Amino acid sequence: MSSVKNVINDSYKLMLLNDYLRVAIKESGFSSVDIQKTPTGTRVALHVTRPGIVIGRKGSGIRDLTKALEKDFDLKNPQISVVEIEKPELDPNVMCNRMSQHLARGTAFRRAVMWTMQTIMNAGAMGVQITISGKLRGERSAFEKHSKGILPRAGHHATVVVSEDIVHVDTKMGRIGVRIRIARKENDIPEFEFKTATKEIPPPKKEVEVEEEKETVVIEEVPEDPTKPRTESELIEKEEEHIKAVETYEEIEEELK
Question: What's 246's domain CATH number?
Fold first, then answer.
């Protein structure tokens, strides 16, 4: 088999694996998977928001997932590692999965879009753009594009700062596609940063020897918050109560009339 066919075959298997993991471990807040082939086997890194759900009790979840990857996807000796996502609200894969669950539960698409945009911007994003298309209101397909903040659209700067993901969800009206693009501030290139004023260089400080007192630090175990959602489904259920209070453009226009 030629190298081109190998690349196509590997990309196709990776796409099938992503689709499988989106469903199999969706409660853990699955984002993406990285595969690396080694002489001893295959390293599989799963990026999720809740690693405990993937690992399972006494590693039962990892063992079941290892058997599935070895049997269904022909991965030789898969060695699974779980990586926790620090800021899930700034991950387009996680937010696409959450928004798709809202749409599948029957939430109005504009309310879901406004809530998702507000959540992403409150988490510290530089900008966000959400495109939703399909049978949104009737039999005819349509699409809407909503954006907020600063979002580079072209050039090398856009490829570095912006990350995106696309997901499809089946509703009563039909299939709907969701595309989320997020620009993160921490990925900003220094040469493109906006400089408002020059910083004054402070005078050099005199070094003074100070005797430091040793303090004993006591580390207390923080108990788990029972009100905090443990799975993605619990999080979606709590968010639905807040989404009902979100105002859409149509409601604002009616108030202005």
Answer: 3.30.1140.32
